[in-house]
Design goal:
Strand order of the largest sheet: 3-4-9-8
Strand content: 15-25%
Largest sheet: 4 strands, antiparallel
Number of strands: 9
Radius of gyration: 23 Å
Number of helices: 5
Amino acid sequence: DGAEVRLTDAIKGDGPDTVIHVPEPGVELPAVGSTVEVEIDWDRRFDHMQQHTGQHLLSASFEREVGARTVSFHLGSDVSTIDLDKELPAEQLEKVEDAANAVLWEDREVCVKFVTAAEAAKLPLRKDPTRTGDLRIVEIKDYDVSACGGTHVSRTGAIGCIVITAYERFKGGQRIEFACGGRALRAFRGLKRAVSGSIRLLSVVPADLPAAIEKVQDDFRANTWYMI
Protein backbone atom coordinates (compact mmCIF):
# COMPACT_ATOMS: atom_id res chain seq x y z
CA ASP A 1 0.00 0.00 0.00
CA GLY A 2 3.01 2.29 -0.32
CA ALA A 3 3.95 2.25 3.37
CA GLU A 4 7.65 2.03 4.21
CA VAL A 5 9.28 0.11 7.06
CA ARG A 6 12.92 0.74 7.97
CA LEU A 7 14.94 -2.38 8.76
CA THR A 8 17.59 -2.25 11.48
CA ASP A 9 19.24 -5.67 11.09
CA ALA A 10 19.37 -8.85 9.02
CA ILE A 11 20.01 -12.25 10.60
CA LYS A 12 20.80 -15.57 8.93
CA GLY A 13 17.95 -18.01 9.51
CA ASP A 14 18.03 -21.79 9.98
CA GLY A 15 17.66 -22.57 6.28
CA PRO A 16 20.48 -22.03 3.76
CA ASP A 17 18.56 -19.27 1.96
CA THR A 18 16.63 -17.85 4.90
CA VAL A 19 17.22 -14.29 6.09
CA ILE A 20 15.30 -12.71 8.97
CA HIS A 21 14.82 -8.95 8.53
CA VAL A 22 14.40 -7.00 11.79
CA PRO A 23 12.23 -3.84 11.55
CA GLU A 24 12.57 -0.76 13.70
CA PRO A 25 10.39 -1.06 16.82
CA GLY A 26 6.89 0.32 17.04
CA VAL A 27 5.96 0.21 13.35
CA GLU A 28 2.99 -1.50 11.70
CA LEU A 29 4.20 -4.49 9.70
CA PRO A 30 2.79 -5.87 6.45
CA ALA A 31 0.41 -8.80 6.81
CA VAL A 32 1.90 -12.29 6.90
CA GLY A 33 2.20 -13.60 3.36
CA SER A 34 2.46 -10.15 1.78
CA THR A 35 4.97 -9.56 -1.02
CA VAL A 36 7.24 -6.60 -0.32
CA GLU A 37 10.11 -4.86 -2.06
CA VAL A 38 13.39 -4.48 -0.16
CA GLU A 39 15.78 -1.64 -0.94
CA ILE A 40 19.31 -1.10 0.36
CA ASP A 41 19.99 2.16 2.20
CA TRP A 42 22.99 2.90 -0.01
CA ASP A 43 24.41 5.80 2.02
CA ARG A 44 24.51 3.63 5.14
CA ARG A 45 25.82 0.61 3.24
CA PHE A 46 28.63 2.55 1.54
CA ASP A 47 29.60 4.14 4.85
CA HIS A 48 29.94 0.66 6.38
CA MET A 49 31.90 -0.56 3.36
CA GLN A 50 34.36 2.31 3.75
CA GLN A 51 34.80 1.80 7.51
CA HIS A 52 35.10 -2.00 7.30
CA THR A 53 37.61 -2.07 4.45
CA GLY A 54 39.49 0.77 6.12
CA GLN A 55 39.70 -1.31 9.30
CA HIS A 56 41.26 -4.22 7.39
CA LEU A 57 43.83 -1.87 5.88
CA LEU A 58 44.58 -0.09 9.17
CA SER A 59 44.88 -3.35 11.14
CA ALA A 60 47.24 -4.77 8.51
CA SER A 61 49.35 -1.60 8.69
CA PHE A 62 49.56 -1.79 12.48
CA GLU A 63 50.86 -5.34 12.22
CA ARG A 64 53.25 -4.69 9.32
CA GLU A 65 54.68 -1.38 10.51
CA VAL A 66 54.92 -1.74 14.30
CA GLY A 67 54.03 -5.36 15.11
CA ALA A 68 50.77 -4.45 16.87
CA ARG A 69 47.98 -7.02 16.50
CA THR A 70 44.26 -6.20 16.43
CA VAL A 71 42.46 -7.91 19.31
CA SER A 72 38.96 -6.71 18.44
CA PHE A 73 37.10 -4.28 16.19
CA HIS A 74 33.83 -2.38 16.61
CA LEU A 75 31.93 -0.65 13.81
CA GLY A 76 29.60 1.92 15.34
CA SER A 77 27.12 4.26 13.73
CA ASP A 78 29.34 7.26 14.56
CA VAL A 79 32.66 5.93 15.86
CA SER A 80 34.68 2.84 14.94
CA THR A 81 37.43 1.39 17.13
CA ILE A 82 40.33 -1.05 16.94
CA ASP A 83 41.74 -2.57 20.13
CA LEU A 84 45.48 -3.31 19.94
CA ASP A 85 47.55 -5.71 22.03
CA LYS A 86 50.10 -3.00 22.89
CA GLU A 87 50.29 0.73 23.54
CA LEU A 88 51.99 2.89 20.93
CA PRO A 89 53.33 6.49 21.05
CA ALA A 90 51.83 9.18 18.84
CA GLU A 91 54.68 9.13 16.31
CA GLN A 92 54.15 5.40 15.64
CA LEU A 93 50.41 5.94 15.23
CA GLU A 94 51.16 8.56 12.59
CA LYS A 95 53.58 6.17 10.88
CA VAL A 96 50.84 3.52 10.64
CA GLU A 97 48.29 6.10 9.48
CA ASP A 98 50.67 7.22 6.69
CA ALA A 99 51.36 3.62 5.61
CA ALA A 100 47.65 2.74 5.46
CA ASN A 101 46.82 5.80 3.37
CA ALA A 102 49.75 5.15 1.02
CA VAL A 103 48.27 1.74 0.17
CA LEU A 104 44.80 3.29 -0.07
CA TRP A 105 45.96 5.85 -2.64
CA GLU A 106 47.47 3.09 -4.77
CA ASP A 107 43.84 2.04 -5.39
CA ARG A 108 44.56 -1.64 -4.90
CA GLU A 109 41.98 -4.27 -5.75
CA VAL A 110 39.89 -5.76 -2.94
CA CYS A 111 39.01 -9.35 -3.83
CA VAL A 112 36.32 -11.53 -2.22
CA LYS A 113 36.28 -15.31 -2.61
CA PHE A 114 35.08 -18.45 -0.84
CA VAL A 115 37.53 -21.21 0.12
CA THR A 116 37.45 -24.52 1.94
CA ALA A 117 39.06 -24.95 5.35
CA ALA A 118 41.95 -26.81 3.71
CA GLU A 119 42.50 -23.98 1.24
CA ALA A 120 42.27 -21.38 4.03
CA ALA A 121 44.99 -23.20 5.98
CA LYS A 122 47.42 -22.42 3.16
CA LEU A 123 46.62 -18.70 3.07
CA PRO A 124 48.58 -16.03 5.01
CA LEU A 125 45.57 -15.01 7.08
CA ARG A 126 46.22 -12.05 9.37
CA LYS A 127 44.07 -13.63 12.08
CA ASP A 128 42.97 -17.22 12.69
CA PRO A 129 39.29 -17.70 11.75
CA THR A 130 36.77 -18.23 14.55
CA ARG A 131 34.53 -20.55 12.53
CA THR A 132 35.03 -23.84 10.73
CA GLY A 133 34.04 -25.02 7.27
CA ASP A 134 34.06 -22.91 4.13
CA LEU A 135 35.26 -19.34 4.64
CA ARG A 136 34.69 -16.01 2.92
CA ILE A 137 38.06 -14.38 2.29
CA VAL A 138 38.65 -10.66 1.74
CA GLU A 139 42.04 -9.78 0.25
CA ILE A 140 43.58 -6.36 -0.24
CA LYS A 141 45.92 -7.06 -3.12
CA ASP A 142 49.43 -7.95 -1.89
CA TYR A 143 48.77 -6.46 1.55
CA ASP A 144 46.16 -8.23 3.67
CA VAL A 145 44.20 -11.50 3.69
CA SER A 146 41.39 -11.94 6.21
CA ALA A 147 38.38 -14.17 6.77
CA CYS A 148 35.39 -11.82 6.93
CA GLY A 149 31.67 -11.82 6.20
CA GLY A 150 31.24 -8.04 6.05
CA THR A 151 30.63 -5.64 3.17
CA HIS A 152 33.63 -4.03 1.47
CA VAL A 153 34.53 -1.67 -1.36
CA SER A 154 36.02 -3.20 -4.52
CA ARG A 155 39.16 -1.01 -4.53
CA THR A 156 41.01 0.71 -1.71
CA GLY A 157 40.66 4.13 -3.34
CA ALA A 158 36.92 4.06 -2.54
CA ILE A 159 37.77 4.21 1.17
CA GLY A 160 38.69 7.85 0.53
CA CYS A 161 41.07 8.31 3.46
CA ILE A 162 41.78 6.89 6.91
CA VAL A 163 42.35 9.09 9.95
CA ILE A 164 43.02 8.16 13.58
CA THR A 165 40.80 10.52 15.55
CA ALA A 166 41.61 9.49 19.15
CA TYR A 167 43.39 6.88 21.24
CA GLU A 168 43.56 5.73 24.86
CA ARG A 169 44.94 2.97 27.07
CA PHE A 170 42.64 -0.03 27.16
CA LYS A 171 43.01 -3.40 28.93
CA GLY A 172 46.79 -3.45 28.79
CA GLY A 173 46.84 -2.31 25.18
CA GLN A 174 45.35 0.61 23.29
CA ARG A 175 41.98 1.54 21.84
CA ILE A 176 42.15 3.43 18.54
CA GLU A 177 39.25 5.50 17.23
CA PHE A 178 39.31 6.04 13.48
CA ALA A 179 37.18 7.37 10.64
CA CYS A 180 37.22 6.68 6.92
CA GLY A 181 35.82 8.41 3.84
CA GLY A 182 32.69 10.45 4.50
CA ARG A 183 33.05 10.09 8.26
CA ALA A 184 36.58 11.48 8.11
CA LEU A 185 35.31 14.47 6.14
CA ARG A 186 32.54 15.11 8.68
CA ALA A 187 35.03 14.79 11.55
CA PHE A 188 37.32 17.34 9.88
CA ARG A 189 34.45 19.78 9.37
CA GLY A 190 33.45 19.48 13.03
CA LEU A 191 37.02 20.11 14.13
CA LYS A 192 37.33 23.03 11.72
CA ARG A 193 34.18 24.67 13.12
CA ALA A 194 35.44 24.24 16.69
CA VAL A 195 38.88 25.65 15.91
CA SER A 196 37.49 28.52 13.83
CA GLY A 197 35.16 29.54 16.63
CA SER A 198 37.95 29.36 19.22
CA ILE A 199 40.49 31.41 17.26
CA ARG A 200 37.81 34.01 16.54
CA LEU A 201 36.98 34.37 20.25
CA LEU A 202 40.64 34.52 21.29
CA SER A 203 41.84 36.57 18.28
CA VAL A 204 44.78 34.27 17.49
CA VAL A 205 45.97 32.24 14.53
CA PRO A 206 45.43 28.43 14.68
CA ALA A 207 49.06 27.66 15.57
CA ASP A 208 48.81 29.91 18.66
CA LEU A 209 45.54 28.42 19.93
CA PRO A 210 47.01 26.03 22.56
CA ALA A 211 49.13 28.79 24.09
CA ALA A 212 46.15 31.17 24.10
CA ILE A 213 43.96 28.62 25.91
CA GLU A 214 46.74 27.99 28.44
CA LYS A 215 46.98 31.75 29.11
CA VAL A 216 43.21 31.96 29.66
CA GLN A 217 43.44 29.09 32.15
CA ASP A 218 46.37 30.68 33.97
CA ASP A 219 44.55 34.04 34.19
CA PHE A 220 41.42 32.31 35.50
CA ARG A 221 43.38 30.50 38.22
CA ALA A 222 45.13 33.72 39.23
CA ASN A 223 41.88 35.67 39.46
CA THR A 224 40.13 32.84 41.32
CA TRP A 225 42.93 32.78 43.92
CA TYR A 226 42.70 36.56 44.30
CA MET A 227 38.93 36.39 44.82
CA ILE A 228 39.29 33.72 47.52
